[in-house]
Amino acid sequence: MTVVITKGKLTSSQRRRRWEDVNPINGLPDGLQEAVTSAYLCMRAIDEVEDHPNIDNKLKKEILTVMSCSLQATTSNTTKQELTANIESYKDVLPEVSYHLADWALLAPPSIAGRIWDATASMADRMAYWSQRNWQIDTKAELDQYTFSVAGAVGLLLSDLWGWHDNTQTNREQAIGFGRGLQAVNILRNHQEDKLRGVSFFPDNWELEEMFDYARYNLNLADCYTKSLPKGSVLNFCQIPLTLAHATLQVMKLGKPKLTRNQVMDLLAKIPS
Question: Is residue 73 part of a domain?
Fold first, then answer.
């Protein structure tokens, strides 16, 4: 997730959620683990539609809108068959993780499920909008809109999940910055691949330095966000992607494309458990 967490040839699950390799979700306590897993898989389901290389933008908008509407109509009494019915006609083009959206949605604990469905439905609507626009970004305001749509909103959802679990309270602007910062780093990491497919997330007249500044600004908010969290599994969950984002930004500034596997493991070993 958010935070879960960019565009390019890699799938969103690879780009926005690199920390899946170490799976910090497994370190979360019971209840919260199921909620975060449900949210992660629901958002991955719509991510995979948005990023699918063989689905044109018009069909992406159609599918994402249908998925959103299905989630908007979901209640505690909705069955898997009912939730799947609206996307059944797209089964042949959908990635498996997307076709099983109902499974992921119904995995959520009942007392927080509505918030997860709402967040996923809203994000699917926003993805439909950006797919129709071919992710054209002309101004910083539009960049903020986009990074909120697919990442900042994930930060807000995570904050709601922490509050639901044990009443942990966080600054919501910092939560948005947490998502935006991770997204901005991934935009930088994938900007060359994006160019090859005719997409740029850089506002007009922006060069690399402006996007680096944008990433640093939001990562500073993300630092404040994580510092406000109590010690424990939630802090660890957030520190993993944030640590990797900071380090990735540093190596890209030196002209290197990404962290090596050994660098990643060394960084993770230094994160207090």
Answer: yes
CA 222 to each of CA 33, 181, 241, 249: distance values in angstroms, whole numbers, following the listed order: 22, 7, 10, 14
Handedness of CA 185, 169, 230, 166 (dihedral sign): negative
Q: What is the b/e burial string over 138-166, where b = at least 16 CB atoms within 10 angstroms of the residue's CB?
A: eeeebbbebbbbbbbbbbbbbbbbbebbe
What backbone torsions phi and psi does residue 2 show, to the nearest 5 degrees?
Answer: -55, 10
Q: Residue 33 belongs to what domain range?
A: 12-269
Q: Is 227 among the domain residues?
A: yes
Q: What is the pTM of this model?
A: 0.88
Domain-located, residue 205: yes
Question: How many domains does the chain fold into?
Answer: 1
- End-to-end CA separation in angstroms for the chain: 20
pLDDT in tens, 65-107: 999 999 999 999 999 999 999 999 999 999 999 999 999 999 9
CATH of the domain at 136: 1.10.600.10
